[in-house]
Amino acid sequence: MLRAGIVGLPNVGKSTLFNALTRTRKAEAANYPFCTIEPNVGVVVVPDARLEPLAKIAKSEKIIPATIEFVDIAGLVKGASQGEGLGNKFLQHIREVDAIVEVVRCFEDKDIVHVAGQLDPIADIETIKTELVLSDLETTTRAKDKLEKLARGGDKEAKESLAVAGKLLEHLNAGKRALSLPLSPEEATAARRLFLLTMKPMLFACNVAESDLSTADASPHVQAVREYAATHVGTEAVVVSAAIEAELGDLPDAEAREYLSHLGVSDSGVSNLIRAAYHLLGLRTYLTAGEKETRAWTIHAGDTAPQAAGVIHSDFEKGFIKAETVSYDALVAAGSMAAAREKGLLRQEGKEYVVQDGDVMLFKFNV
pTM here? Predict the structure, then answer.
């Protein structure tokens, strides 16, 4: 299972958000730096509004949603790349995740200590970026030294990788994340072998106060983070109030929706964040529906029908014949699988078909 790591400076709300994400109290949330030392890991359900209507159509006994893993990682401080605070552990734990969700404090609270003494979301982002870039510079420099020796011995792959390492060093020395360096597919493959921290896909979670949630789009702090995310990283920034979400975790779903409505918000920030992280990891969902269960299956973007079938069972992929396929929207509009078939909405897809998010599928196979 792919993992998204939750990172940020101390006291930005990481552990509170993790608790809300997982609806547990696994992560200690306290008003002092480094209250999270060893990473907390939680399996999180991916909210999907398509499952319930699909289950009603199929008269399913149960619903099984998709899941991903979130990891709550210790807070970072300036100097982490040189081992300050819990720097070495922090960096190692980031190296072990597949994508990064950086929590950025966008709320004022004199009772919660800010490690820099004042609220400045962009400065916080730059602090973490600097530490990750410095760590990547060290990693790339060491790799370049090894590659030079191999290249002198005539190793062709080492020569190609050496050129990429040179590009990366120049880019990192300019204070830029590795993921923003334009690379050819071949160069990107070589770069991934270095396992750089700033090569990982990332998004930002703007943690706002409860009183600011309904007007968060107008917040200058949120606007600044969104602009930074778009222009510097090419990613998105999701608004969430970790404190509210932690409270929602204790409420039944109906009461939670009513509470959000009272606050002037239509959907949970945590739900939006989970969905954003799921797509950030390159994951997509196809659906199956029958009397026993309606289920969301996780695949990678670009997976073919046989690969999608293999997620259910390896025999399905080995003996794949075809996949009866209809889009979720078309099926719901038709009202039933039989009606979708009568209207010619049900397609017979073969081995080359690239599965789309929201496809409802039934596989035919022979082993």
Answer: 0.85
pLDDT per residue over 259-309, tens digit each? Answer: 888 887 877 788 899 999 999 999 999 999 999 999 999 999 999 999 999
Spatial separation of the C-alpha atoms in residues 274 and 258, rounded to whole Å: 21
Max distance between CA atoms of the chain, in angstroms, equals: 69
Tokens of 61: 């006994």
Name 56's Cβ contacts closer than 8 Å, sequence gap at least 6: none
Cα 129 to Cα 10, 18, 273, distances in angstroms: 15, 21, 21
Contacts for 272 with CB less than 8 Å, ≥ 6 apart: 238, 239, 240
**Among the listed residues 292, 285, 287, the one whose alpha carbon sits nearest the alpha carbon of residue 62:** 292
Residue matched to tokens 């009183």: 211
As given in the structure block, the two tokens for residue 64 are 């099984």
What backbone torsions phi and psi does residue 228 show, to the nearest 5 degrees?
A: -60, -45
Residue 134 DSSP SS3:
helix
Give the H/E segment covering residue 159. helix 156-173
Q: Which two tokens stand for residue 217?
A: 């789009």
Give the span between the Cα atoms of 2 and 256, in whole angstroms. Answer: 28
| Burial (CB count within 10 angstroms: exposed 0-12, middle 13-18, buried 19+), residue 18 | buried
Q: Distance of alpha carbon 143 from its chain centroid, rounded?
A: 28
Helix (H, G, I), strand (E, B) or coil at 86: coil
The residues with which 287 forms a beta bridge, in sequence order, are 296, 360
Sign of CA dihedral 90, 91, 97, 100: positive
**What are the backbone angles phi and psi of residue 355, rounded to the nearest 5°?**
-70, 135
DSSP symbol at 144:
H
| Sign, CA torsion 121/125/126/130 | positive
